[in-house]
Batch of 2 targets.
Target 1
Amino acid sequence: MRVEAVGRKRRSGTGKAVADPPSPDRPAAVRRALRSLVAERGFHGASMSAVAKRAGVATGTAYVHYASKEELVYAAYLEIKSELADAIVAGVDVNPERDVDPADRWRQMMRAAYRHLSAEPERARFLTQLEESPYRVEAQCRLDAEGNPLQALAAEPRLVRLLVRLPPEVLYALSFGVLVKLVAADVSLSRAELDRLITATWRAVTVA
Amino acid sequence: MRVEAVGRKRRSGTGKAVADPPSPDRPAAVRRALRSLVAERGFHGASMSAVAKRAGVATGTAYVHYASKEELVYAAYLEIKSELADAIVAGVDVNPERDVDPADRWRQMMRAAYRHLSAEPERARFLTQLEESPYRVEAQCRLDAEGNPLQALAAEPRLVRLLVRLPPEVLYALSFGVLVKLVAADVSLSRAELDRLITATWRAVTVA
DNA sequence: TTGTACTGAATGAATGATCGTTCATCATCT
DNA sequence: AGATGATGAACGATCATTCATTCAGTACAA
């Protein structure tokens, strides 16, 4: 039986319900729990019961919102990818539009990505684990299905003209892929080292 | 009970046993089976019983040679790493010693690595899965314990002088790491694309 | 306002499958 | 005989998933 009902909804006046903690968004709690457990123990150690426990819900609750563990995994993946894309977009200044040097924009994007990832390395660890697992193919499909936001970013014509003629996934692996991997592996970079790394990726993906 | 005893040893003359297939090296068969199962199904789907079945041995046989699944995993990892290092060493010509341009040597090494990995992509897939999992830390320790063969290769003074001042693991991620990841992801590169990729990594890891 | 029926989120014990591991037993060779 | 490798059924633990049940919240009738 339930022991108590902490922070459940209260009624205020006529109509809408008002939450005590803003809202007990259980699907989000479950996704977060999966994210952190996968990051620290791998898919191996992220059982549904462990996920539920960390999310503070019952085992069955996860299945109310996700049809299976696999569906939950994909949901968490898409969420992390879109958070990353948002962070990168927010990191570049779009005001002068025409005047920004592509190399400078590249630097802004990489810096934003690094800030975002290292602020919560769980994300990088989850990404690397999933993208090197058999989930990869299906995850990539779902990402493309809802319009890969990172790919759109890289399509800017003035940038494209400078890029080495290599498939997009190779260019990704040479730049953002390296960033994600390093954060996941807990390699800490000084400001100067990060700058040298960004320069290195720029030299890698562009022609002289 | 055993149904038959295919290819068991036969006796020849006085002393040594002669195998029918040269030698039923069961530990090696078990390592190979783990390698291929992890590559195609992930650690998830590589249970010890499945590994044993694919290796053509009984479940218990794996435990005769390895104390636990974890030990088997590390053994398979070290084997793959050392095979890779051997392939790279074999790929560079060491005869003129003093006269080879570091950039050329780099190209030879990367090409050898790519040949070796894409000839049997299981290796790349196993490596990426392990190196992004919680096994990573312990695996790295054991690798260093028996003298990381790749690290020795990169220590050549004339090369070191040209490298960007970044930690070794960052330089690895920018070059060989990318190669392994791409082969694991089944990205097929034309001869020209591979050349451009190698050039890209060289530009990334060296100063102008 | 009160009573009642309905809805769907939340629960957690239970299920069958499968996991890593063990071990009594057997086979083969010295 | 003794030693070592190989066997596979069996073990307890844990896995993903299910489902009968509880509970909070809403809508409507009286």
Target 2
Amino acid sequence: MENRKSQIIELALRNIREKGYLSFSYDDLAKELGVTKASIHYHFIKKEDLGLAVCTKLKEGLEKSFLNIEQAPINSDDKPWEFISRRANEIGNNEVCPLSSLQADYNFLPMAMQESVQQLSIMEIDYLAKILDEIKKEGKLEITQDTGAFATLIISSIKGALQYRRVVGEDLYSIVLDQLKLLVKGNHEVRHK
Amino acid sequence: MENRKSQIIELALRNIREKGYLSFSYDDLAKELGVTKASIHYHFIKKEDLGLAVCTKLKEGLEKSFLNIEQAPINSDDKPWEFISRRANEIGNNEVCPLSSLQADYNFLPMAMQESVQQLSIMEIDYLAKILDEIKKEGKLEITQDTGAFATLIISSIKGALQYRRVVGEDLYSIVLDQLKLLVKGNHEVRHK
DNA sequence: ATACTAACTTACTAATAGGTAAGTGTCAAT
DNA sequence: ATTGACACTTACCTATTAGTAAGTTAGTAT
């Protein structure tokens, strides 16, 4: 992709993590790049176009993360947490997950973006469920029959934790992550000893 | 409190659940009430004043919920879920938790509101932790030593779930709630049979 | 009747938003 | 040398935002 165009997408993505889709303006981006508002409009005629480009980038990133984890040389037990950590590490302490941010603005997004956000939301849970399925196959996970439901719990809590973290401080995210790990491990150990 | 004033607070609260603090305007409220924008400004000179009034109301509601649950004639095992359900039932399918909504706009809130949101965020977790402590005292909860950490997990996942629900559909919230209940009960049963 | 107050309306401001039209400078291909 | 595409800028438009100042109306107390 052209350099400037992807630069703008990256900038918009950071702004979405920090402020949300509705709360960043073309002028914000223009000032950060040292150009005029109209220059951003040249690359992305409407804000919706830029928003959709960001969604596409998020989708690509999600797919890449999943494929990377699937063939990573680590224990399948660790894969769910590695999947989550890698994605969460891209989010600063003063930011939230970009998908959460888009969900927060959901009622005001143009329809095409709503569809994309919906699709991404489901995809992320499904990918984690697939990763959990592998552990289950190996007999290492019995905490729940329903990996889809368990994946939903994990993703929900991580997203919630990242939003809380920005308000009440860094610790909160790792507390939640540790609790999740403890639940899986604790249960597993109890049943197999 | 005067009728109109509390009516405006209620309306602002609903707007925050639906749209967020930044995305509702005095004109929105005015149109819904059939009055002019300036009339809202008469009751709440600045938007921040209205925002703080909403925060106060949220705080009162949270305290009331906690006190009601503490002295409710139900098993202490059920109290955490009753606490959560009662609060979640006030949130429509097209809305999110008002506190989550304020957290999403956190970086743009006036400082006084940021402080209030931070306080509320901590309070809610602490109240749930207290409810969990009672179960622990009765020996009915051994899933975790740290009720504070477990309360953090529960609140995070519920908040995350409510935000997902609006995007991907009603089921998601009850899936997460069921998973949480299953984790507590499952673990308890395993250890005591 | 007068004065006072609560709850407004009318009419405005300045700032910011997304978006557009027309023009400018730079470069590469012909 | 000319054309044409690319990446812009200048200058504008309309709508919306929070907020303000001044006037109006209805009811209440004296």
